């Protein structure tokens, strides 16, 4: 394995933040908005994040969800790489069972060639969608088999990234290009570096696997908060030092939205909560407006879900959000917080990241 230095993984703390702050983008599409507008907003947020000193910017693979335009992370990351210069870019994540490992190695090798030293490859084992869509993606209805094969798929992908299949292996003469093989070819000057691999999870499976392999781990606290501390404990207990990391490194995804006043923050997060109600009840759609969410007549069961959902979203004024994020970092021991803002309009999301940056005194520009 080509050694990956830990400093390519560990984030840098800026301002008064106690841990590095990063951004997770779902490229949400609101009612009355287009995917084009959503993708333009992603560029705007990535530029803001870079300017204000957020450490990394990830996009997440989802399918068949009208309100989420991030079905092709590699394509979006290439676009973001063309509009940024320094911030790390990555997948949070690519759902590996949906793809051939060689294809992912090629895609992220290409991204690494486009933005050397700035690409992260975060991998998940869930489909990122419903079962029928997963079957269409994978051309099979044996979905559990795909998830169970994740360790083998990960090992194959790593071999392609490192170009180190052993002699006699069926893939020994197959190379992911761009990749390390170009450095070993006659006259080759291609860098052998490759993106660091992260494992993503919302339960204990990937936490344990990341620990055993000595890889960095990202936990989806934003939709599986009840499992956060058990998963992080399992990751740390399972961790074995590797060529990648000499100690555990875990980030958590956090839903957070700041606004100029508490009422406006509540209005914005309620639209995201209504969107989740519809998704969980088999009615996925565009993210509703705050006005529609305020006027919506929630059933008692829906209201119970919304109340529980909102308790795990850090929202309010900038000072309230800063306090909530600091408390969460202390309670979980997370090494990094990756903030996602689910709101109807891009303006609210941009404003939120700006206000959070201000609350922590993040730089107004990076050198």
What do these coordinates show?
This protein is of the alpha/beta class and 367 residues long. It has 14 helices and nine strands. An eight-stranded parallel β-barrel has the order 1-2-3-4-5-6-7-9, surrounded by eight helices. The longest helix is centred in the last third of the chain and has 19 residues, at 262-280. The two termini are 32 Å apart.
Describe the structure concisely for a colleague.
The chain is of the alpha/beta class and 367 residues long. It has 14 helices and 9 strands.
First-last Cα distance:
32 Å
Ranges where pLDDT stays below 50 over 5 or more residues in a row are: none
Task: Figure out the total of helices.
Answer: 14
Radius of gyration: 20 Å
Can you lay out the helices and strands and say which pair or pack?
Elements: E1 21-25, H1 35-52, E2 56-59, H2 73-83, E3 88-95, H3 101-114, E4 119-124, H4 131-138, H5 143-148, H6 150-162, H7 181-184, E5 197-201, H8 204-213, E6 217-219, H9 228-238, E7 250-258, H10 262-280, H11 290-295, H12 300-311, E8 313-316, H13 318-332, E9 336-340, H14 346-359
Parallel strand pairs: 1-2, 1-9, 2-3, 3-4, 4-5, 5-6, 6-7, 7-8, 7-9
Helix pairs in contact: 1-2, 1-14, 2-3, 3-6, 8-9, 10-12, 13-14
């Amino acid at each position: 394995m080509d050694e990956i230095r830990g400093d390519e993984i560990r984030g840098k703390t800026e301002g008064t933040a106690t841990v590095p702050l990063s951004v997770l983008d779902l490229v949400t599409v609101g009612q009355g908005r287009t995917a084009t507008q959503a993708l333009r907003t992603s560029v705007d947020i990535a530029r803001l994040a870079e300017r204000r000193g957020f450490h990394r910017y990830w996009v997440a693979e989802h399918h068949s969800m009208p309100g989420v335009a991030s079905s092709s992370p590699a394509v979006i990351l290439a676009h973001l790489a063309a509009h940024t210069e320094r911030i790390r870019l990555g997948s949070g994540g690519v759902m590996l069972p949906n793809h051939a490992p060689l294809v992912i190695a090629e895609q992220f090798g290409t991204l690494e060639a486009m933005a050397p030293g700035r690409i992260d490859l975060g991998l998940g084992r869930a489909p990122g969608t419903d079962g029928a869509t997963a079957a269409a993606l994978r051309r099979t209805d044996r979905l559990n088999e795909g998830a169970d094969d994740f360790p083998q798929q990960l090992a194959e992908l790593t071999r392609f990234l490192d170009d180190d299949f052993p002699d006699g292996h069926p893939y020994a003469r197959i190379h992911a290009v761009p990749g390390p093989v170009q450095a070993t070819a006659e006259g080759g000057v291609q860098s052998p570096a490759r993106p660091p691999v992260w494992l993503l999870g919302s339960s204990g499976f990937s936490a344990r696997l990341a620990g055993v392999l000595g890889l960095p781990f990202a936990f989806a606290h934003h939709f599986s908060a009840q499992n956060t501390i058990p998963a992080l404990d399992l990751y740390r207990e399972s961790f074995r030092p590797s060529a990648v990391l000499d100690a555990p490194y875990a980030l958590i995804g956090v839903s957070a939205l700041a606004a100029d006043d508490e009422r406006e923050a509540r209005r914005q997060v309620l639209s995201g909560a209504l969107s989740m109600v519809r998704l969980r009840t088999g009615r996925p759609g565009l993210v509703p407006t705050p006005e529609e969410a305020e006027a919506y007549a929630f059933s008692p069961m829906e209201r119970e879900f919304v109340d529980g959902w909102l308790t795990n979203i850090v929202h309010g004024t900038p000072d309230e959000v800063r306090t909530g994020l600091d408390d969460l970092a202390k309670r979980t021991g997370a090494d990094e917080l990756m903030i996602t803002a689910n709101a109807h309009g891009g303006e609210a999301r941009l404003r939120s990241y700006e206000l959070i940056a201000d609350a922590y005194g993040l730089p107004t520009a990076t050198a």
